[in-house]
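Quick one: structure for this chain?
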Amino acid sequence: MYILRSYLFIIICFIHTPIVYGQTFSIKGQLWGSGIIGDDPAEDQSSYEAQLGYIPTISIYQNFDNSQLLDIEWAYRINRMHGGNVLLATSAKPYRGWLRYSSPKVEARLGLQKIAFGPAQFLRPTSWFDTIDLRDPTGQTDGVESFRLRFFPINNVSIWSWAINSKTDTLSYGGRAELSLDSGDWGFTYHQDPTVMPQKIGLFPIMMSGPHDRFALDYRYDGFIGFWFEGSALISENKNYSGFSRYSMISAGGDFTVPIGNGLLLMTETMNIKGSSLLNSRTDTHSYSVFMASFPVGLLHQLMAISQIDWRNKQRFYYFRWGITFDYFSVNILFSANPKRVDYDLPTSYLPTSLSGFGQTLNLMLIYNH
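Got it. Here's what it folds into:
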């Protein structure tokens, strides 16, 4: 909590200085509501769910000479979910809260913020600090309490560094270098995490037993077709852990826009995850693939279809979205077809109680951005 407390002290001092009268102040937010009907509810749960949430956001920024900028952003996320007449979940917590200084060569940001990188779209070995999911029309992602510094020594090079505070007040450190060439864009990333408690990494079922190192290499090329790959390794030296202490992940993908109408975007990605144990030399492998088609119809409508395959468990997941976007308001009709709860080799008590992700669901989501 030290980083966030320091940030709050700075923001209070900043607001109470005389310069605030020359600053630009804005209030914005995102209000969303959804209703889901599904055919595979958890035991004793309703087949209907409703959700309502709001994220108010306050921004203050001040421009200085030589293209320098000092700005602040604070956002709070309020969310309630009901299953029939039963309250399933409620939360109210900070969503963003950072102070940033930027110039043509340097950007420094302190507080609760988003840290995301890498070119992969769905199957992302570098989703270490975010929860980005392109199937979510709200575009929301969790943030981390951190200090991030980016340096741009020349036009085609950027260097990142960060310190992240965990929920147990343990600081982890890392950095990233990005190089943009005519042949494509490269990224090299390293992160060292001394946290003793086991933790889940990214959006996949990966648990690290304690202190560990993370390495990643990624590349993207944009030409007649788009092509990218991400590879990462998570390494722990805990030889007494019965689970997997080392993971390697690699994802490759490509996209192409077919010149039909306003452009039919086709995309595919494949990912392989391998876990190994130092205790008993046991290994395990998972493979996933995703296929996506996205097509804009006129100025307001967007169609998206996604198919995801879990090759090891021989499971398929289907998703379809029809989005209608006006100036500040959007209507999203979402349909998904997924394996049912009985198809998983897990006790039902270990599975989420939400309808989302199980069986066939139909979801109507309304989003208002102001």
